[in-house]
Write a structure and sequence with these properties.
Blueprint lengths: L5 H9 L1 H30 L5 H28 L2 H25 L4 H29 L5 H30 L1 H20 L14 H14 L1 H30 L5 H28 L2 H22 L6 H32 L6 H14 L1 H15 L1 H15 L14 H6 L18
Helix pairs in contact: 2-3, 2-5, 2-6, 2-7, 3-5, 3-8, 3-13, 4-5, 4-7, 5-12, 5-13, 6-7, 6-10, 6-12, 8-13, 9-13, 9-14, 9-15, 10-11, 10-12, 11-12, 11-15, 14-15
Length: about 450
């Protein structure tokens, strides 16, 4: 079986805009994964930061998702995507370059790193909304799942390589050259974004930002397919983050695994996500979009529930790590199947003038549950003990993974049919597609 299906090969060969945007997104993903691990690593190893300071560095990269996603939707709907992609790539590259210069000149401080993390996190929100809103403008509806499969595959590879590369580069080159390498990825993303031409802003009628944000939220929540997908994504992300938090405590304190072994387990899980991303479009074509969506999220939950089942048995460390890794591979495979088609539907259903607002609204709900999940995981571990908490979260995840089974999406055969669920019967017009109020 070829690694890339024929549809992806045709996209990369014949669609110049997609090829440029994907190349830029790939560079940005690798730069982001490198940076996400590099900044806390620098704080711990070079600046001897406290736990609170390390947590602050991680938090300021994530907080903009909650605070600025809806604003990003307004910006993306009012300006050509090329401008947003270029400006945000320049901002992230410049922040990293300045960190390298500060280290070479007088040494870094926590303030430098926190400020850079805030800039990078903010720019990433706008970049991601612009990228995901651009895909349906440059590829056909039938090609969206293949495009998103390639996107998810790239993301999975960067998750595997980014942290390892950060540790290797810091050890071999030192801090300033490592910051330069990370900045170079965003230079590549800038160049790729600059090559995107001919994709204009949707021409949204001018109205206040608050009214635009409200319109996007109402539109997203008014369509049953988008509402169901958004709810499922939020519940899944909450449980995924909650489980990961509990697992880190459980694996270290009760299983006695080292940091390297825990990292190996989670890293191997990304292989499952990579595999799922590459085959998602083919699976959807051979079964149905509805079955792929519902089956993917249930498989993701079942994979994590294998973790507490595995540790019931008295196993050696090597076998234990292998089986735990398998559980995360199954989880990653299921998550990828769901993500490819959930993102594809989110891009295919809205009219062009609502793409940015819907993308931003969806991401706010779907990703806004991550900090809640992390906090809940820690609280459950303290209250119940990590051993019991991991069972509670695993069973709860399996229960909420059935949400889409009660959605009309479960019966959708193709992406076009799923898209039609958001249309008025007999009109061919997407619900909410009328011109926004002035």
């Amino acid at each position: 079986m070829a690694i890339l299906d024929e549809e992806v090969r045709l996209l990369l060969k014949e669609n110049r805009d997609f090829r440029n945007v994907w190349a830029g997104e790939s560079a940005a993903h690798f730069g982001s994964q490198l940076t996400n691990f590099l900044l806390p690593l620098v704080a711990v190893t070079a600046l001897h930061a406290s736990g609170t300071e390390v947590g602050l560095i991680s938090a300021v990269q994530f907080i903009p998702i909650v605070l600025l996603s809806l604003v990003a939707g307004v910006v993306v709907d009012r300006h050509p995507p090329r401008r947003t992609l270029v400006i945000t790539s320049v901002a992230r590259g410049a922040a990293l370059a300045l960190l390298g210069l500060a280290q070479a000149a007088q040494g870094l401080t926590i303030t430098h790193v926190v400020a850079a993390a805030a800039v990078i996190g903010t720019a990433t929100v706008f970049y991601e909304v612009a990228y995901q809103s651009t895909i349906p403008k440059i590829v056909s509806v039938d090609s969206i799942p293949s495009a998103n499969g390639l996107h998810q595959a790239t993301y999975s590879v960067s998750q595997l390589a980014g942290p390892s590369a950060a540790g290797f580069l810091v050890g071999k080159l030192g801090l300033s050259p490592t910051f330069a390498v990370a900045a170079a990825f965003f230079v590549g993303a800038t160049l790729s974004g600059a090559l995107l031409r001919g994709v204009k802003a949707p021409g949204v009628p001018r109205q206040s930002a608050l009214r635009t944000i409200g319109s996007g939220l109402r539109y997203t929540w008014s369509l049953r397919p988008l509402r169901d997908l958004c709810t499922q994504a939020g519940l899944s992300n909450l449980h995924e983050q909650c489980f990961l938090t509990v697992f880190l405590i459980f694996a270290a304190r009760e299983l006695g695994l080292s940091g390297t072994e825990i990292g190996l387990v989670i890293g191997i899980g990304s292989v499952g996500a990579l595999a799922g991303s590459l085959v998602a479009a083919r699976i959807g074509a051979r079964t149905t979009v509805g079955r792929t969506l519902t089956g993917g999220v249930v498989l993701a939950a079942a994979g994590l529930l294998l973790v507490p089942l595995v540790v019931v048995f008295d196993l050696g460390v090597v076998v234990l790590v292998a089986l735990l890794s398998l559980a995360f591979v199954v989880n990653g495979f299921g998550v990828a199947l769901f993500n490819v088609f959930a993102v594809s539907l989110r891009q295919a259903i809205p009219p062009e003038h609502q793409l940015g607002a819907v993308t931003a609204s969806y991401r706010l709900v779907a990703l806004g549950t991550l900090p809640v999940g992390a906090f809940a995981g820690g609280a459950l571990s303290d209250a119940l003990g990590a051993g019991r908490a991991i069972w509670v979260v695993g069973v709860s995840y399996l229960c909420v993974s059935c949400w889409l089974m009660f959605s009309p999406l479960r019966s959708a055969t193709t992406l076009e049919q799923a898209r039609a669920l958001g249309e008025r019967p007999g009109s061919g017009e997407t619900v909410g597609e009328q011109t926004p109020a002035p």
